[in-house]
Amino acid sequence: MGDPCCLNSPTRVLSLSNERESWQLLTSLVSEVYYGFVGPISTVAVTVLFLIWTYIPEPWLHSVGITYYPSRYWAFAVPIFAMVTVVLAIGFYVGLNFMVTHPTSFNTMFDEYSREPTTFADMTRGKEQRIEPLSDIGRKTII
Q1: Membrane topology type, per the record (predicted)?
Q2: How distant is the alpha carbon of residue 21 from its chain centre?
Q3: Which residue, 24, 72, 31, 32, is CA-closest to 52?
């Protein structure tokens, strides 16, 4: 039997806690491995079942013994609903960003990349003029 002072040693407690942490880490890794395996396999299985249900004629399904399934309307409607939902979500997101910024805020006109024009050439002078560098027209120039 071990020495009683060794059983109460802080090193012994530390080694027990390290073993417990490694066991918890191992169990969490095992569950992640299962999720990583089951996720793609179930996605492929559901996709194959969806395609079979969509493209196999009803008499063939009845001959196999499959008589209870959803209407074929949903094979067309659900993907359309999903695509419309994504488009509307993007539209609402952009709209909410426009609503957050005050209409008279200078942030709607200028940002850190705005540049004042180097010169403001009168467009009526001369027939040929050089193209001005790309820049933003300042408020003082317009007013």
Answers
A1: Multi-pass membrane protein
A2: 33
A3: 72
Which residue type does 44 have? V
Diameter of the chain by CA atoms?
107
How far apart CA 126 and CA 131 sit, in angstroms, is 13
CA dist., res. 137 & res. 120, Å (int)? 9
pLDDT digits (tens, 9 = 90+) for 30-58: 677 777 888 899 999 999 999 988 899 99
**Residue type, position 27, single letter:** T
**pLDDT tens sequence across 105-139:** 777 777 777 776 655 555 555 566 677 777 777 77
Q: Tell me the three-class secondary structure of the chain, residue by residue.
A: CCCHHHHCCHHHHHHHHHHHHHHHHHHHHHHHHHHHHHHHHHHHHHHHHHHHHHHCCHHHHHHHCCCCCCCCHHHHHHHHHHHHHHHHHHHHHHHHHHHHCCCCCHHHCCCCCCCCCCCCCCCCCCCCCCCCCCCCCCHHHHC
Q: What is the Rg, in whole angstroms, of the alpha carbon atoms belonging to the chain?
A: 34
